[in-house]
Amino acid sequence: MLDAVARVLRLDAAERSHLRALVRPARADAASPTSAESPRPGVRTLLDSLGATPALVLGARVDILAWNAGAHALFAGHLPFEEPPNAARLVFLDPATRRLFGEEWPAKCRDTVADLRIVVGRRPGDRALAMLIAELVERSPEFADLWRAHPVAACPSHARRYRHPRVGPLTLTHQLLDLGDGSAQRLALYAAEPGSPSAAALTRLVPSVPGVIAGRPSSGPGPGPAVG
């Protein structure tokens, strides 16, 4: 019956998956809805080994659980390196992030909400995630409008332009990869075309990379850095 409904509504693959999750929610994760998250040590080693290539780990509630120096310098050099924020809060509530995306910001906002819809559909009992959505609806008119519009889409890869305050224009390809360990955590990588002006700009962005990555256990939309 669900397939028949999906055909009538002309849903794409991501929307069909979201519909199934809403009707038949998956069994709750081994982690409770309010439990803390942390990437496994091997993932932290991977981030550190990527050098200046921006990379970060997104948690099940789109908290940035860890990032390397490249990702910090690209997205949030104005925020503490040791305390990665929630990615959705960063997009909708931080003015510096809005300036970074420039004319791409509306598309980034829509992609963020479309991804959050999938996340929420898979975690229907997650109170911390519900609190995050409620906060964004209250604090961001743009988020509230998009949430009511109900976009649903997976965003595994795209190319996007940035206006970085230190190194100028950048065009980077973004890859979002499921870690495949049942944690619902994802690895985000950002790369420039070899030999391009954007590749040269990335080397200026992080001229010397510290041999550490930043990350902290997260409980979702609880205490953390204020953005916006």
Characterization of this structure:
By secondary structure, this protein is an alpha+beta fold. The protein has a domain at 40-102 and 154-215: 2-Layer Sandwich (Beta-Lactamase), CATH 3.30.450. Helices cover 43% and strands 15% of the residues. It has ten helices and six strands; from the N terminus they run H-H-H-E-E-H-H-H-H-H-H-E-E-E-H-E. The longest helix has 18 residues, at 105-122.
What layout of secondary structure does this protein have?
Layout: H1 2-9, H2 13-23, H3 41-49, E1 55-58, E2 64-67, H4 69-76, H5 87-93, H6 95-101, H7 105-122, H8 127-139, H9 141-149, E3 157-164, E4 168-178, E5 186-191, H10 197-205, E6 214-215
Antiparallel strand pairs: 1-2, 1-5, 2-6, 3-4, 4-5
Helix pairs in contact: 2-7, 7-9, 8-9
Number of β-strand runs: 6
Query: What is the percentage of strand-forming residues?
Result: 15-25%
Order of strands, widest sheet: 3-4-5-1-2-6
The backbone outline, from C-alpha atoms, is: globular
- Quote the average pLDDT: 82
CATH topology category name of one domain: Beta-Lactamase
Instruction: Give unreliable regions as ranges.
Output: 14-23, 26-32, 217-228
In N-to-C order, the SSE pattern is HHHEEHHHHHHEEEHE
Features:
10 helices; 6 strands; disordered C terminus; 228 residues; globular; alpha+beta; Beta-Lactamase
